[in-house]
Amino acid sequence: MSLNPMHSGAACPGLVQTTSADVDEHCAQLGGWRLTYDQISAGAFRGSFTQLSLPQLDIFHEVTSQQVRQHGELGRDCCGLAVPCSGEGPVNVNGTSIPQDALIVSFDAEVDICTPRGFTLRGVTLSAGLVDEIASQLAIELPRDLRHRMRAMSAPADALARFRAALTTIDRLRGTQTEPRQSAALGRTLQDGLLLAITDLLSDARPCDDTRSSAARKRIVDRACELMLASSASPVSLMDVCKAVGASRRKLSYCFQDVLGTSPLTYWRAVRLNRVRRDLKAAHDPRDGIYDIAVRHGFWHFSQFSLDYKRHFAELPSETLRRARMDASSELRHNTFRH
Protein backbone atom coordinates (compact mmCIF):
# COMPACT_ATOMS: atom_id res chain seq x y z
CA MET A 1 0.00 0.00 0.00
CA SER A 2 1.15 3.55 -0.63
CA LEU A 3 -0.23 6.69 0.94
CA ASN A 4 0.74 9.95 -0.72
CA PRO A 5 -0.92 13.05 0.77
CA MET A 6 -0.50 16.18 -1.34
CA HIS A 7 0.51 19.18 0.77
CA SER A 8 0.15 22.91 0.17
CA GLY A 9 3.10 24.33 -1.74
CA ALA A 10 3.83 21.00 -3.48
CA ALA A 11 0.49 20.41 -5.12
CA CYS A 12 -3.19 21.08 -4.56
CA PRO A 13 -3.77 21.13 -0.77
CA GLY A 14 -6.36 18.74 0.61
CA LEU A 15 -5.70 16.14 -2.09
CA VAL A 16 -4.87 12.61 -0.91
CA GLN A 17 -4.19 9.61 -3.15
CA THR A 18 -3.73 6.00 -2.03
CA THR A 19 -3.13 2.68 -3.75
CA SER A 20 -3.36 -0.78 -2.20
CA ALA A 21 -2.98 -4.47 -3.04
CA ASP A 22 -5.10 -5.53 -0.04
CA VAL A 23 -8.85 -4.98 0.32
CA ASP A 24 -8.67 -4.25 4.08
CA GLU A 25 -5.85 -1.73 3.68
CA HIS A 26 -7.77 -0.09 0.85
CA CYS A 27 -10.88 0.16 3.04
CA ALA A 28 -8.88 1.68 5.91
CA GLN A 29 -7.90 4.64 3.71
CA LEU A 30 -11.44 5.68 2.76
CA GLY A 31 -11.62 9.09 4.34
CA GLY A 32 -12.55 7.95 7.84
CA TRP A 33 -15.69 6.12 6.74
CA ARG A 34 -16.79 3.30 9.03
CA LEU A 35 -17.06 0.59 6.39
CA THR A 36 -16.04 -3.05 6.02
CA TYR A 37 -15.08 -4.43 2.61
CA ASP A 38 -15.29 -8.17 1.83
CA GLN A 39 -13.63 -9.37 -1.38
CA ILE A 40 -16.16 -11.67 -3.06
CA SER A 41 -14.53 -12.56 -6.40
CA ALA A 42 -11.26 -14.49 -6.63
CA GLY A 43 -7.98 -12.92 -7.71
CA ALA A 44 -5.36 -10.37 -6.70
CA PHE A 45 -6.89 -7.15 -5.41
CA ARG A 46 -5.87 -3.71 -6.66
CA GLY A 47 -7.50 -0.54 -5.43
CA SER A 48 -6.98 3.21 -5.50
CA PHE A 49 -8.70 6.06 -3.71
CA THR A 50 -8.38 9.79 -4.36
CA GLN A 51 -10.05 12.40 -2.16
CA LEU A 52 -10.12 16.17 -2.36
CA SER A 53 -11.22 17.82 0.89
CA LEU A 54 -12.92 21.20 0.59
CA PRO A 55 -14.27 23.26 3.52
CA GLN A 56 -17.80 21.86 3.32
CA LEU A 57 -17.50 18.63 1.33
CA ASP A 58 -15.15 15.90 0.09
CA ILE A 59 -14.89 14.69 -3.51
CA PHE A 60 -13.71 11.12 -4.06
CA HIS A 61 -12.73 8.76 -6.87
CA GLU A 62 -12.46 5.03 -6.06
CA VAL A 63 -11.28 2.11 -8.19
CA THR A 64 -11.48 -1.58 -7.17
CA SER A 65 -10.40 -4.55 -9.28
CA GLN A 66 -12.47 -7.30 -7.62
CA GLN A 67 -16.13 -7.78 -6.71
CA VAL A 68 -16.58 -6.30 -3.23
CA ARG A 69 -19.37 -6.03 -0.69
CA GLN A 70 -19.26 -2.74 1.17
CA HIS A 71 -21.26 -2.39 4.36
CA GLY A 72 -21.27 -0.05 7.34
CA GLU A 73 -21.78 3.70 7.38
CA LEU A 74 -20.09 6.82 6.07
CA GLY A 75 -20.44 8.63 9.39
CA ARG A 76 -23.03 10.25 11.60
CA ASP A 77 -25.11 12.92 9.81
CA CYS A 78 -23.24 12.18 6.57
CA CYS A 79 -24.78 12.38 3.11
CA GLY A 80 -23.08 10.63 0.21
CA LEU A 81 -23.94 10.94 -3.48
CA ALA A 82 -22.13 8.81 -6.04
CA VAL A 83 -22.31 7.68 -9.66
CA PRO A 84 -20.91 4.41 -11.04
CA CYS A 85 -18.55 5.06 -13.96
CA SER A 86 -17.41 1.58 -15.02
CA GLY A 87 -17.67 -2.07 -14.05
CA GLU A 88 -17.84 -5.58 -15.46
CA GLY A 89 -21.36 -6.20 -14.18
CA PRO A 90 -24.29 -4.66 -12.34
CA VAL A 91 -24.04 -2.73 -9.08
CA ASN A 92 -26.35 -3.97 -6.31
CA VAL A 93 -27.55 -1.32 -3.87
CA ASN A 94 -29.46 -2.23 -0.74
CA GLY A 95 -31.07 -5.29 -2.25
CA THR A 96 -31.47 -4.51 -5.93
CA SER A 97 -29.49 -4.14 -9.14
CA ILE A 98 -29.40 -0.52 -10.30
CA PRO A 99 -29.38 1.07 -13.78
CA GLN A 100 -26.06 2.37 -15.13
CA ASP A 101 -27.28 5.97 -15.07
CA ALA A 102 -28.55 5.83 -11.46
CA LEU A 103 -27.50 8.15 -8.66
CA ILE A 104 -26.59 6.36 -5.42
CA VAL A 105 -27.70 8.35 -2.37
CA SER A 106 -26.96 7.53 1.28
CA PHE A 107 -28.60 10.15 3.50
CA ASP A 108 -27.45 9.50 7.09
CA ALA A 109 -28.01 5.79 6.50
CA GLU A 110 -26.43 2.35 6.57
CA VAL A 111 -24.39 1.51 3.47
CA ASP A 112 -24.81 -1.82 1.70
CA ILE A 113 -23.41 -2.11 -1.83
CA CYS A 114 -22.04 -5.01 -3.85
CA THR A 115 -19.80 -3.78 -6.67
CA PRO A 116 -18.55 -5.76 -9.70
CA ARG A 117 -15.01 -6.35 -10.91
CA GLY A 118 -13.20 -3.42 -12.50
CA PHE A 119 -15.41 -0.91 -10.73
CA THR A 120 -15.00 2.86 -10.67
CA LEU A 121 -17.09 5.11 -8.45
CA ARG A 122 -17.09 8.91 -8.24
CA GLY A 123 -18.91 10.87 -5.60
CA VAL A 124 -19.07 13.42 -2.85
CA THR A 125 -19.75 13.35 0.90
CA LEU A 126 -21.02 16.23 3.03
CA SER A 127 -23.13 16.93 6.09
CA ALA A 128 -26.78 15.90 5.75
CA GLY A 129 -27.59 19.03 7.75
CA LEU A 130 -25.83 21.15 5.12
CA VAL A 131 -27.99 19.61 2.38
CA ASP A 132 -31.13 20.46 4.37
CA GLU A 133 -29.88 23.99 5.03
CA ILE A 134 -29.10 24.76 1.38
CA ALA A 135 -32.36 23.20 0.19
CA SER A 136 -34.22 25.46 2.61
CA GLN A 137 -32.31 28.56 1.47
CA LEU A 138 -32.99 27.78 -2.19
CA ALA A 139 -36.64 26.81 -1.56
CA ILE A 140 -36.04 23.28 -2.86
CA GLU A 141 -38.22 20.44 -1.59
CA LEU A 142 -36.22 17.27 -1.10
CA PRO A 143 -37.87 13.86 -1.66
CA ARG A 144 -39.80 12.87 1.45
CA ASP A 145 -38.38 9.35 1.73
CA LEU A 146 -34.75 10.41 1.24
CA ARG A 147 -33.60 10.55 4.86
CA HIS A 148 -32.05 7.67 6.81
CA ARG A 149 -31.99 5.50 3.74
CA MET A 150 -29.61 4.35 1.05
CA ARG A 151 -31.08 3.87 -2.37
CA ALA A 152 -30.67 4.33 -6.10
CA MET A 153 -32.34 7.43 -7.54
CA SER A 154 -33.13 8.50 -11.08
CA ALA A 155 -32.43 12.13 -11.97
CA PRO A 156 -32.75 14.34 -15.07
CA ALA A 157 -30.00 13.58 -17.59
CA ASP A 158 -28.75 17.18 -17.76
CA ALA A 159 -28.46 17.51 -13.98
CA LEU A 160 -26.68 14.16 -13.74
CA ALA A 161 -24.27 15.19 -16.52
CA ARG A 162 -23.37 18.42 -14.69
CA PHE A 163 -22.74 16.46 -11.49
CA ARG A 164 -20.48 13.97 -13.29
CA ALA A 165 -18.53 16.79 -14.95
CA ALA A 166 -17.99 18.54 -11.61
CA LEU A 167 -16.67 15.33 -10.05
CA THR A 168 -14.01 14.86 -12.75
CA THR A 169 -12.38 18.15 -11.74
CA ILE A 170 -10.44 16.16 -9.17
CA ASP A 171 -8.47 14.51 -12.01
CA ARG A 172 -7.21 17.85 -13.32
CA LEU A 173 -5.90 18.80 -9.86
CA ARG A 174 -3.55 15.83 -9.47
CA GLY A 175 -0.02 17.15 -9.38
CA THR A 176 -1.15 20.73 -10.00
CA GLN A 177 1.13 23.37 -8.52
CA THR A 178 -0.99 26.07 -6.90
CA GLU A 179 -0.40 29.01 -4.61
CA PRO A 180 -2.51 29.00 -1.40
CA ARG A 181 -4.61 31.99 -2.56
CA GLN A 182 -5.29 30.45 -5.98
CA SER A 183 -6.07 27.11 -4.39
CA ALA A 184 -8.61 28.66 -1.99
CA ALA A 185 -10.38 30.45 -4.84
CA LEU A 186 -10.43 27.29 -6.94
CA GLY A 187 -11.80 25.29 -4.00
CA ARG A 188 -14.64 27.76 -3.39
CA THR A 189 -15.59 27.74 -7.07
CA LEU A 190 -15.57 23.95 -7.23
CA GLN A 191 -17.50 23.62 -3.97
CA ASP A 192 -20.21 26.10 -4.99
CA GLY A 193 -20.62 24.32 -8.33
CA LEU A 194 -21.00 20.95 -6.66
CA LEU A 195 -23.48 22.21 -4.06
CA LEU A 196 -25.65 23.65 -6.82
CA ALA A 197 -25.36 20.41 -8.82
CA ILE A 198 -26.37 18.38 -5.75
CA THR A 199 -29.47 20.47 -5.05
CA ASP A 200 -30.43 20.28 -8.75
CA LEU A 201 -30.14 16.51 -8.61
CA LEU A 202 -32.06 15.94 -5.39
CA SER A 203 -34.91 18.31 -6.19
CA ASP A 204 -36.03 16.11 -9.11
CA ALA A 205 -34.64 12.71 -8.01
CA ARG A 206 -37.02 9.80 -7.71
CA PRO A 207 -36.48 6.21 -6.48
CA CYS A 208 -35.71 3.88 -9.36
CA ASP A 209 -36.18 0.62 -7.45
CA ASP A 210 -39.19 -1.40 -6.38
CA THR A 211 -38.78 -0.71 -2.66
CA ARG A 212 -41.22 -3.35 -1.43
CA SER A 213 -39.86 -6.31 -3.40
CA SER A 214 -36.20 -5.33 -2.94
CA ALA A 215 -36.72 -5.01 0.83
CA ALA A 216 -38.25 -8.50 0.94
CA ARG A 217 -35.31 -10.00 -0.97
CA LYS A 218 -32.82 -8.24 1.26
CA ARG A 219 -34.53 -9.52 4.41
CA ILE A 220 -34.17 -13.09 3.14
CA VAL A 221 -30.50 -12.59 2.28
CA ASP A 222 -29.69 -10.84 5.56
CA ARG A 223 -31.31 -13.62 7.58
CA ALA A 224 -29.52 -16.28 5.51
CA CYS A 225 -26.16 -14.55 5.99
CA GLU A 226 -26.77 -14.29 9.72
CA LEU A 227 -27.39 -18.04 9.92
CA MET A 228 -24.51 -19.04 7.67
CA LEU A 229 -21.93 -16.89 9.42
CA ALA A 230 -23.15 -17.06 13.00
CA SER A 231 -21.06 -20.00 14.21
CA SER A 232 -18.36 -21.92 12.39
CA ALA A 233 -18.09 -24.35 15.33
CA SER A 234 -21.45 -25.87 14.38
CA PRO A 235 -21.83 -25.21 10.62
CA VAL A 236 -25.29 -25.30 9.08
CA SER A 237 -26.19 -26.79 5.74
CA LEU A 238 -27.80 -24.96 2.84
CA MET A 239 -30.96 -26.99 3.51
CA ASP A 240 -30.99 -25.70 7.10
CA VAL A 241 -30.71 -22.14 5.81
CA CYS A 242 -33.49 -22.61 3.26
CA LYS A 243 -35.81 -24.01 5.93
CA ALA A 244 -35.02 -21.20 8.37
CA VAL A 245 -35.72 -18.40 5.88
CA GLY A 246 -38.68 -20.16 4.26
CA ALA A 247 -37.30 -20.22 0.71
CA SER A 248 -36.46 -22.89 -1.81
CA ARG A 249 -32.87 -23.27 -2.97
CA ARG A 250 -33.77 -21.64 -6.28
CA LYS A 251 -35.49 -18.68 -4.61
CA LEU A 252 -32.58 -18.21 -2.22
CA SER A 253 -30.15 -18.22 -5.17
CA TYR A 254 -32.26 -15.62 -7.01
CA CYS A 255 -32.33 -13.42 -3.90
CA PHE A 256 -28.54 -13.63 -3.42
CA GLN A 257 -27.96 -12.85 -7.08
CA ASP A 258 -30.24 -9.79 -6.92
CA VAL A 259 -28.90 -8.48 -3.61
CA LEU A 260 -25.21 -9.44 -3.70
CA GLY A 261 -24.54 -10.38 -7.30
CA THR A 262 -23.36 -13.90 -6.44
CA SER A 263 -24.57 -17.30 -5.21
CA PRO A 264 -25.14 -18.23 -1.54
CA LEU A 265 -22.26 -20.73 -1.40
CA THR A 266 -19.82 -18.40 -3.16
CA TYR A 267 -20.65 -15.58 -0.78
CA TRP A 268 -20.52 -17.89 2.25
CA ARG A 269 -17.04 -19.13 1.35
CA ALA A 270 -15.74 -15.67 0.37
CA VAL A 271 -16.74 -13.98 3.64
CA ARG A 272 -15.20 -16.77 5.71
CA LEU A 273 -11.99 -16.53 3.68
CA ASN A 274 -11.92 -12.77 4.32
CA ARG A 275 -12.27 -13.43 8.05
CA VAL A 276 -9.40 -15.93 7.97
CA ARG A 277 -7.23 -13.40 6.17
CA ARG A 278 -7.93 -10.71 8.77
CA ASP A 279 -7.08 -13.12 11.57
CA LEU A 280 -3.87 -14.16 9.82
CA LYS A 281 -2.82 -10.52 9.51
CA ALA A 282 -3.48 -10.04 13.22
CA ALA A 283 -1.81 -13.30 14.33
CA HIS A 284 1.45 -12.11 15.86
CA ASP A 285 1.55 -14.95 18.40
CA PRO A 286 3.67 -17.84 16.95
CA ARG A 287 1.39 -20.33 18.72
CA ASP A 288 -1.58 -19.19 16.61
CA GLY A 289 -1.18 -21.44 13.56
CA ILE A 290 -2.83 -21.33 10.15
CA TYR A 291 -4.81 -24.53 10.70
CA ASP A 292 -6.19 -23.26 14.01
CA ILE A 293 -7.38 -20.06 12.36
CA ALA A 294 -8.88 -21.92 9.39
CA VAL A 295 -10.84 -24.27 11.65
CA ARG A 296 -12.06 -21.29 13.66
CA HIS A 297 -13.92 -20.18 10.52
CA GLY A 298 -15.24 -23.56 9.45
CA PHE A 299 -12.51 -24.81 7.09
CA TRP A 300 -11.89 -28.39 8.21
CA HIS A 301 -10.05 -29.77 5.15
CA PHE A 302 -6.72 -27.95 5.20
CA SER A 303 -5.51 -28.81 1.69
CA GLN A 304 -8.79 -27.64 0.14
CA PHE A 305 -8.71 -24.53 2.31
CA SER A 306 -5.19 -23.68 1.08
CA LEU A 307 -6.29 -24.07 -2.54
CA ASP A 308 -9.40 -21.93 -2.00
CA TYR A 309 -7.38 -19.26 -0.18
CA LYS A 310 -4.73 -19.02 -2.90
CA ARG A 311 -7.38 -18.90 -5.62
CA HIS A 312 -9.22 -16.12 -3.80
CA PHE A 313 -6.33 -13.88 -2.75
CA ALA A 314 -3.57 -14.92 -5.20
CA GLU A 315 -1.26 -15.98 -2.36
CA LEU A 316 -0.92 -18.83 0.13
CA PRO A 317 -2.13 -18.32 3.71
CA SER A 318 1.47 -18.88 4.86
CA GLU A 319 2.56 -15.90 2.77
CA THR A 320 -0.09 -13.69 4.38
CA LEU A 321 0.99 -14.79 7.86
CA ARG A 322 4.71 -14.38 7.14
CA ARG A 323 4.24 -10.84 5.80
CA ALA A 324 2.05 -9.85 8.76
CA ARG A 325 4.65 -11.05 11.25
CA MET A 326 7.45 -9.31 9.36
CA ASP A 327 5.47 -6.06 9.41
CA ALA A 328 4.78 -6.44 13.14
CA SER A 329 8.45 -7.14 13.85
CA SER A 330 9.54 -4.15 11.76
CA GLU A 331 7.08 -1.88 13.57
CA LEU A 332 8.30 -3.14 16.96
CA ARG A 333 11.93 -2.40 16.04
CA HIS A 334 10.96 1.04 14.78
CA ASN A 335 9.10 1.89 18.00
CA THR A 336 11.94 0.56 20.15
CA PHE A 337 14.51 2.63 18.26
CA ARG A 338 12.34 5.74 18.43
CA HIS A 339 12.03 5.48 22.24
Automatic annotation (TrEMBL):
Q: Give the matching Pfam families.
A: HTH_18
UniProt keyword terms in alphabetical order: DNA-binding, Transcription, Transcription regulation
In what residue span(s) does the HTH araC/xylS-type domain sit? 222-323
The reply to whether Isomerase figures as a keyword in the UniProt entry is no
Its recorded name reads: Helix-turn-helix domain-containing protein
Organism, as annotated: Bradyrhizobium aeschynomenes
